[in-house]
Amino acid sequence: MTSTETTPEATEAPVATGASLTANAAEKVKNLLAQEERDDLRLRVAVQPGGCSGLRYQLFFDERSLDGDQTTAYDGFELVIDRMSVPYLVGASIDFVDRIDAQGFTIDNPNAGGSCACGDSFH
């Protein structure tokens, strides 16, 4: 998943995770967490086998803490990436778009060698 628009400034520089959230994405995550009414959840981003190019992204709220997790603190929540996914996400920018033609989280990843029509995988 890549964005064709200019990526808004990230709310914080990538630290331990190597990835960053834009201000739009961070605000959306905070709103979603407020709806969940739980303070033990973190945004987990992972790269998993699958998709037509071999790998795909997963974004979900998770209360687990896995061995080797890399964490970046944001205002009100944490971004967590497992140790196996970190190399695939170094330099990636996660945004949230809300337009008539698209809505949802997008990942602009300089490590992606290409993508396919399904829009959720890379190699």
Structure description:
The protein is α/β, with parallel strands linked by helices and 123 residues long. The chain has 2 helices and 8 strands. The protein has helices at 23-36, 86-89, and strands at 20-21, 42-49, 55-62, 70-74, 77-81, 93-98, 103-108, 121-122. The strands form 2 sheets. Strands 4-5-2-3-8 form a 5-stranded mixed sheet. Strand 2 and strand 3 (55-62) form a beta hairpin.
Summarize this entry quickly.
The protein is an alpha/beta fold. The chain has helices at residues 23-36, 86-89; strands at 20-21, 42-49, 55-62, 70-74, 77-81, 93-98, 103-108, 121-122.
Oligomeric state as shown: single chain
Strand content: 25-35%
Please state the structural category: alpha/beta
The largest sheet is:
5 strands, mixed
Radius of gyration over C-alpha positions, nearest whole angstrom: 14 Å
Task: Fill in the keyword field for this structure.
8 strands, alpha/beta, three-stranded mixed β-sheet, disordered C terminus, five-stranded mixed β-sheet, disordered N terminus
